[in-house]
Design brief:
CATH architecture of chain A: 4-Layer Sandwich
CATH topology of chain A: S-adenosylmethionine decarboxylase
Oligomer: homodimer
Strand order of the largest sheet of chain A: 2-3-4-5-1-6
CATH class of chain A: Alpha Beta
Structural class of chain A: alpha+beta
Shape of chain A: globular
Radius of gyration of chain A: 14 Å
Order of helices and strands of chain A: EHEEEEHE
CATH superfamily of chain A: S-adenosylmethionine decarboxylase
Largest sheet of chain A: 6 strands, antiparallel
Strand content of chain A: 35-45%
Chain lengths: 117, 117
């Protein structure tokens, strides 16, 4: 019996200045689904929470490969995004690029962390 | 009308070598609830996924203050933890300390990132 390969993850931590859809949970959900598809990962579950009309949204996509999360502050035109994928087939940068495009955003800051390395 | 204060978050990114409970979703759920209490944050929703008997667990706690997530690989005695809290009252380090204790773990790596700073 061989030992399974040790997991290795890539975690993109991105703060965005964003102008579109930050107070719209249906839009945030759609973008999370699209981002998972762009990353070529498997979506297991998706949870959204809306903090109230004109207020922020928290969304988490549970993936077979780890997770994508977003927290938004429409009153500040800010969003905090994490894209954490394990496995060499996943394309986390493609997910982030898609989210930046859909939220009409630009990156304020991004860090890439190798997890479990 | 005053502008609300800009959000500020602390994100702890921790990889753990862990020996207890990594294949037990009920245990992981309990630890997530306890970690949220230790951090003095408000739990909104909790989602667990178990990848199969003796296999890993993904758990995400949605918080009023952002999220706590964990992904486990019991076959490698590894867990990847994120604790992301916004607001000056939250105590993310207390949550991490609690998780390390409960999973009989030690830190392989930890980074603290100031989000939206």
């Amino acid at each position: 019996m061989t030992t399974p390969p040790r997991p290795h993850g890539i975690h993109l931590i991105a703060d965005l200045a964003a102008t579109k859809g930050l107070d719209d949970p249906a839009f945030v959900e759609a973008v999370l689904r699209e981002a998972a598809a762009a990353a070529r990962v498997t979506l297991i579950d998706l949870r959204l929470h809306h903090f109230g009309e004109h207020s922020g949204v928290t969304g988490v996509a549970l993936l077979a490969e780890s997770h994508i999360s977003i927290h938004t502050w429409p009153e500040h035109a800010l969003a905090a995004v994490d894209i954490f994928t394990c496995g060499g087939e996943a394309r986390p940068q493609a997910a982030l690029d898609h989210m930046i495009h859909r939220f009409a955003a630009h990156l304020l800051r991004m860090e890439r962390i190798d997890r479990l390395a």
